[in-house]
Design a protein that fits this description.
The protein has a single domain, classed as Rossmann fold. Helix content is about 45%, strand content about 15%. The strands form 2 sheets. A 4-stranded parallel sheet has the order 1-2-3-6, sandwiched between helices. Helix 1 links the parallel strand 1 and strand 2.
Length: about 170
Amino acid sequence: EVVVDFERLNEHAAAFQGYDVGFCCLGTTRAKAGVDGFIRVDRDYVAQAAELARAGGCKHFVLQSAHGANKRSKFLYLRVKGEVENLVQAVGFDHCTILQPAMLLCARQESRPAEWIAQQFFGLVARVFPTAYSVPVETVARAMVACVLQPGKGKVEVLENKAIHELGKA
């Protein structure tokens, strides 16, 4: 484990050397970091980490993004996620896997009342439509590992929620 200062990430380039695979689940919220902080963490830090990983020899980069990510979205969250997907793809990894999960079902240590309500709702919906609107974080983690052990075809692979469920059970 290496602790890095993301504000001075270039000073930690050595921490990104010598790995064949990189996994990135970095993110924050606008409520926690403000608009500028959200963009810095979810786009700029992720893109810079991908560049350092590639320079350090990483061949396969696995990025957790979000369902509906689109660089042209009117919604800040989805726009930033779409922008970072494009930035990571442009780095030039031999293989890049982007996971676009829907609502992540997980227990959080911090209080997020609106997210808690949404998780309760989507947890119930998942009983009828298990792969449509949500996914447990454990399933996403298993899918991230599985996509490295059995890589898909092509240079860039985008996995949406249903594919994440399927791969996470493999």
